[in-house]
Amino acid sequence: MKEAKRVAKNTGILYAQMFITVLMSLYATRLVLAALGAEDFGIFNVVGGAIAMLTFLNTAMASASQRFMSFAQGQGDFKKQKNIFNISLVLHFFIAIVVVILLEIVGYFLFSGILKIDSNRLDIAILIYQFLIVSTFFTIISVPYDAIINAHENMLLVAILRIIETILKLAIALFITYTSFDKLYMYGLLMASLSVFLLIIRQIYCHTKYEEVTINFKKYFNKPLFKEMTGFAGWSFLGSSSSLLTNYGQGIVINMFFGTAVNAAQGVCNQIAGQLGAFAGTMLKALNPLIAKSEGAGDRNLMLKASFIGSKVGFFLLTIFYVPVILEMPYIFGLWLKEVPEYAIIFCQLLLARNLIEQLFRTLSSSIAAVGNIKKFEIYKAFINFLPLIVAYILFSLGYPPYTLYVVFIIYAILNAILTLYIAKIECGLSIKEFLKDVVFKSVFTFVVLILITAIPNYFLEESFIRLIVVLAVSTCFFFIVVWFIGLTVYEKSMVKNILNNVLSKHKAKM
After folding, report:
1. DSSP string, 22-58
2. Using an 8 Å Cβ cutoff, are 386 and 253 in contact?
3. Exposed, middle or buried by CB within 10 Å (0-12, 13-18, 19+), for 20?
4. Residue 501 and residue 485: Cα distance in Å, rounded?
5. Which of 428, 407, 104, 50 is closest to 243 using CA atoms?
6. Number of other CB atoms surrounding residue 86 within 10 Å
7. 143-151 and 155-178 are packed helices; what angle lies between their axes, rounded to 10 degrees?
8. Using alpha carbons only, what angle is made at residue 45 by residues 91 and 188, rounded to the nearest 5 degrees?
9. Phi/psi class of residue 298: alpha, beta or left (left: φ > 0; alpha: ψ in -120 to 50)?
């Protein structure tokens, strides 16, 4: 119960931050699209859009380092935490060098005929790509600091930095709206500079706040631990980098066949999915340390329980936002943007469907990482990650429309889910039957029932702001009813009742 309260508190802090930042982020996107225009916005998303993917890379790699930090905390070994931090710094420095070299090689081929970019904007696109590389280097070498923050569950700092980031992004959007300089160039430069600035703040804070953040490579070097972390980091990097390349590769494949205008639709779609998906990602950020610490303390049962509940709660947090957005997306996009790029709506609807599938199995990946034997999982995952791009390329060559890419990625999400279940059974002792019954089937059935109920006013009322309000009201009201009677198990209902009783008793005591 103590752990549940800590996770709930951290999640609450992050959600307070989310409510502050989401609207500002969406408004900033509206300003940027209007300032750059569809063509330049598309160029940024296919070339500099990987800057946005750095968030994914940073999170994935930080979770690997965090696994060792949290595991050591669960063991109560403070000296080992210092060893882990110093080894992690060395590892990520060399990873950063390798990635920079690879990006430079890839960039040579991208700008030698692969990307479809107007010749008068090619020089700017190349500069933006260089901004990306600098930002990538700083992001990777700062991963150990993010791992420290997450291992200490310092979600207040995470929330403050996210709010600062959002405010500065809005300031950048306003600046390029009125600047007389080249808008695309300034946007790429400022976005890359922002990521470096925030990473430096994290480093300064960690050196000031945490005792284990002490740099002394000679004193804290541990050869067996170095070998263990190198193996783990290497396999983890294989999986996370292949996912990053696959996500970034979507924009390249789209660009090769359909040009930068469709990349603009993809950029808008990613903004919506990213903001809505952050609600579930926020919960996972608060839960991951508990999963790793439970395994470090030898409590496999608690670790699996946290994974079960995390998968389901994450799915429900997406559902409460996704249902009305999927049904009312054409009207919402019309309100949000001055000009809606072609394919943006269908792209977004399909991407949200993919995100729902992936969310159900995300905490199982954290459980596999907590156990530590990830080699087989990351190899299989890296292989599967590249399949969607190959299949999409073939289908586009045969004349299929742009949204085919997202259909392919839904199939990919299902394949990845099957792989995750299989590895979790082998490494964590997961009962696949129990997980399917208590998590997958209950969650999917909850979503289907809720979207059918919410579709009633959507079908019978004319498209308008009134219909949007009605759909939101119906979806929200029935969400709690459907989740309670269909989505939760008896054990989960008793947990909810206990938490509510504790809150009520504390409130009465204060009165």
Report:
1. HHHHHHHHHHHHHHHHHHHHHHIIIIITHHHHHHHHH
2. no
3. middle
4. 19
5. 50
6. 24
7. 130
8. 75
9. left
How much is the pTM?
0.69
Per DSSP, 181 falls in state S
Q: CA–CA separation, 204 vs 229, rounded Å?
A: 24
d(C-alpha 367, C-alpha 220), whole Å: 28
Q: Give the DSSP per-residue string, 10-30.
A: HHHHHHHHHHHHHHHHHHHHH
Residue 474 has a pLDDT of 92
The string of DSSP codes covering 146-199 is HHHHHHTT-HHHHHHHHHHHHHHHHHHHHHHHH-SS-HHHHHHHHHHHHHHHHH
Q: How far is CA 419 from CA 44, 355, 365, 458, 481, in A?
A: 34, 17, 10, 37, 33
Residue 245's Cα: distance from chain center in Å? Answer: 15
Residue type, 84: I
Q: Tell me, letter by letter, the H, E, C secondary structure of 287-352.
A: HHHHHHHHHHCCCHHHHHHHHHHHHHHHHHHHHHHHHHHHHHHHHHHHHHCCCCCCCHHHHHHHHH
Q: Residue 139 pLDDT > 90, yes or no?
A: no
Closest among 494, 147, 446 to 313, alpha carbons compared: 446
pLDDT, position 42 = 72
Q: Can you say how many angstroms the Cα of residue 26 is from the centroid of all Cα atoms in its chain?
A: 17
> Nearest-CA neighbor of 262 among 346, 343, 337, 340?
343
Q: How many CA atoms lie within 13 A of 295 on its CB side?
A: 26
Length of the chain as a residue count = 511
Q: Examine the pLDDT at 194 and tell me if it is beyond 50.
A: yes
How many Å is the maximal CA-CA distance in the chain? Answer: 71
pLDDT category of residue 47 using cuts at 50, 70 and 90: low
CB-based contacts of 470, cutoff 8 Å, min separation 6: 457, 461
pLDDT on residue 1: 47
The residue to which tokens 């080699």 are assigned: 375
Residue 294 to residue 464: CA distance in whole angstroms: 49
